[in-house]
Structures are given as C-alpha cells and as structure tokens.
UniProtKB/TrEMBL annotation:
One of the GO biological process terms: D-xylose metabolic process
Protein name: Xylose isomerase
The record's free-text note on cofactor binding: Binds 2 magnesium ions per subunit.
Residues reported in the UniProt entry to bind Mg(2+) 1: 230, 266, 294, 337
Cofactor: Mg(2+)
Organism, as annotated: Pacificibacter marinus
Length: 433
C-alpha cells in the first residue's frame, strides 16, 4: 500500500439523504436496473491518463500537480500502478483504460520502450489478479511525441507510419494479454492544419490501410474484443478525418470495415462536432456501430475539449436512454475520460471527482430506465410516424415518382401539418429527473 490516498475510505452507497461526501448517493452497484445490476449496466472504467499521467498543464501554464510517481523510470511506473489500483479499489470501479505512454517510461529505442511496456503489462497482470479489476480497453498514444506532429497513420513520412503500425501492434498485444475487452484507435493528430501541404486522398488511404491491418491482426491473433474508433472533429488539428459518427461510418464503408469496427463516443467530442451526446449515440445505434462511451463534459463557454467530470443529470439521462435503446453495453462501458481542474491538487479531489461523476451517471441511468420502461416517449414517437405503417405509407418506400404523382392526383391530397409536440415531450422527460 502507498500513502497517497491515506485516510480516504472505500466509497460505499449511503443513499440520496447522506451528508457524507465520501459516499455514493445514487450509485448503488447492486441495485437492479432493467434486469441487470447498476454495476453491470454502467460498467465504469477509470482513465489512467487524466488521473495519473496528466501534470495539470494547459496551453498557457505548466505543471501544477506534484505526484510522487512522476518520472521516467520503471520504478516510478510501478508506483503509479500501485496508486492507480488503490484508487480503483476505493471507488470499486470494475475497469480501467490506458494508453501505452501513460503507463511505461519512454526508452531510448523502440525496443527499449516495448520492453518497458511489457514489464508494466506483467505488473498490471499481478495487480489485476490481486484486485479483480479488469481492462476495458487499451490504446496507443500516437499524438504526444513530436514525431507525431503531422499524424501517425496519415503522416507524410512512411517511416513514421511504420513506427506507428509497430506501436499499435505492441499495444494490441498488451491489451490482449491483459484480457482487454476492446481496443481503441484515437487519432489525436490524424488530420491537417492547412490544405496547402496536405494530400487528403493519400492520407485517407493511409488511415484506411492502417485500420485494415489492425482488423487483420485482430483476426490473426484470435482476439475476441471489439475494435473501436473514437470520433473527434478538431483540436488540436483544424480538421480530423474521424470528425463524428457519420464521418467514421462513411470511412468504414469506404474501406470495407463497417462490419468490423464500432465507435467509442465521447461527450466532449460530440459537442465540438456541433452535436449533442445523445445524437451521436443515437446515430451509432441506428448504424449498428455503437460500442462504448467516454464520459466527460465540456465547458459550454469554452471552445476547448475541457474533459470535466460529468454533473448534468438530464444530459446523462438522454445519453443512457440511447445506450439502453441499443441494448446496453456489450464489450463497452463508461470510461471517465475526465480530469481534475488544474487547481484541484489534493488526493481527495481525485476521489470525489469520480464519486460525483459516478453518481451523476447513476442518476441519469435510473431516469433513462424509467423513461424507457414507462413507454410514453416511445409511444409518442411511434404515433408521430404511424402513417408510415399504413398500406399507403409503406408503398411510398417502393413506388416510383409517377405512381406517387398519380395517387396524389386521384386522392386529391392536400395534407395539413401536424404538431411535433416538442414542448410536451420536453415536459414529459423532465418529470423523470
């Protein structure tokens, strides 16, 4: 045991009337929600990078956090793992997620870096056996190092493409060895700053080929988890090739991968793309590519991806409503891609941020389940489209323009519009919060 979280108790459920800030008010892991425990429905995961690797910097200021494990040695990486798994146990989160660069020191060569990763993977395996915590997903950091300033798969230098492919292989190997249920590709710099120096067609083909190789390797190695892409529109690049769910789906169709790859949707990225979180989740569900979610929120007065912990229950409810409509998580889950504010320096802050986020998600899940089980919202939606279930409505989807034209003339159609009843439905939904 370390002393970083010394004096902080294991967080337990005490109910909505509790005044204990080190307790859950809404997240009761054993409560049954739509046939599963809340723990099974939410499948919480903690993000290694924001919680344990981020130093508290921003575009205008440097490090604010002073953590005893900061440094580039295996010994400090193991200390970081010790602290991380203590937090996982305090919160009783069943999963965690990581990039390779979050967990291992950078070596002088690719071989040394890979050896460092393998050493930490072995250490993780021991910690996972001791605690029962599992890996939700692994991924490769192909954006922080200066070599990736022009992208990884989309880089104009083929040597960096090769380095990136080799790194992905090592991270997939690590994920598979630890029993990770998903492997995520997040293209932090797979985009462009200016079209003046960019060949978009070439870069898209490179990205498509990289993803095809990932899928091929998955099948070659017999990996049973899901391959996920995390859409993101911009920041830091001007435009990214995985802009949103719709863009990713078009990309998958273009390269014959729509049956192989799903999406990991982040709330903050949805907002940056000009969408709502529930829009992106609903579209992923409709397209059959919903996989997992990164949970956070943006500051709506900022144009930046601020990665704050979620606290807006109505937003969470509408998001989990789409998750439940999709049949719930299968291999995916709720990963807190959320970080403290750079002024929140204490160990207690890190625990309480997760407590608040987990409670907000739990309250949102319960509201979403109540809306879905009540059925009034779905009944209203179905009633709005009822005409399409009639014989005439169904025929429109197969008739041609001439047939439809003649029918409109014969029936002397002159239809009046019908109310969409938006305010009524907003009032209906609000009563569940």
């Amino acid at each position: 045991m370390t002393d970083f979280f010394k004096g902080i108790p294991a967080i337990k459920y005490e109910g909505p009337d509790s005044d204990n800030e080190f307790a859950f008010r809404h997240y009761n892991p054993d409560e049954i929600v739509m046939g599963k425990t809340m723990k099974e429905q939410l499948r919480f995961g903690a993000a290694y990078w924001h919680s344990f690797a981020w130093p508290g910097d921003d575009p205008f200021g440097g490090q604010t956090f002073d953590r005893p494990w900061f440094g580039n040695t295996l010994e400090l990486a193991k200390l970081k793992a010790d602290v991380a798994f203590e937090m996982f146990q305090i919160l009783d989160v069943p999963y965690f997620c990581f990039h390779d660069a979050d967990v291992r020191p950078e070596g002088a060569t690719f071989a040394e870096t890979t050896a460092n990763l393998e050493a930490i993977v072995d250490y993780f395996a021991e910690k996972m056996d001791e605690t029962g915590v599992k890996l939700l997903w692994g991924t490769a950091n192909l954006f922080s190092h200066r070599r990736f300033m022009s992208g990884a798969a989309t880089n104009p230098d083929p040597d960096i493409f090769a380095f990136s492919a080799a790194t992905i292989k090592t991270c997939m190997d690590a994920t598979m060895k630890l029993g990770g249920e998903n492997y995520v590709l997040w293209g932090g710099r797979e985009g462009y700053e200016t079209l003046l120096n960019t060949d978009m067609g070439r870069e898209r083909r490179q990205a498509g080929r990289m993803l095809q190789m990932v899928v091929d390797y998955k099948h070659k190695m017999g990996y049973k988890g899901a391959i996920l892409i995390e859409p993101k529109p911009q920041e830091p690049t001007k435009h990214q090739y995985d802009y949103d769910v719709a863009t990713v789906y078009g990309f998958l169709k273009d390269f014959g991968l729509e049956g192989e790859v799903q999406v990991n949707v982040e709330q903050g990225h949805a907002i940056l793309a000009g969408h709502s979180f529930e829009h992106e989740l609903a579209l992923a569900r409709e397209l059959g590519i919903f996989g997992s979610i990164d949970m956070n929120r943006n500051d709506y007065q900022s144009g930046w991806d601020t990665d704050q912990f979620p606290n807006n229950v109505p937003e969470m409810a509408l998001a989990y409503y789409e998750v439940l409509r999709a049949g719930g998580f299968k291999t995916g889950g709720t990963n807190f891609d959320s970080k403290l504010r750079r002024q929140s320096l204490d160990a207690e802050d890190l625990i309480l941020a997760h407590v608040g986020g987990m409670d907000a998600c739990a309250a949102g899940l319960k509201a979403a389940a109540a809306i879905l089980e009540d059925g009034k919202l779905e009944a209203a939606r179905n009633a709005r489209y009822a005409g399409w279930d009639s014989a005439n409505g169904a025929a429109l989807m197969s008739d041609d323009l001439t047939t439809i034209h003649d029918r409109v003339l014969a029936q002397n159609l002159n239809p009046d519009p019908k109310s969409g009843r938006q305010e009524r439905l907003e009032n209906l939904v609000n009563k569940y919060f």
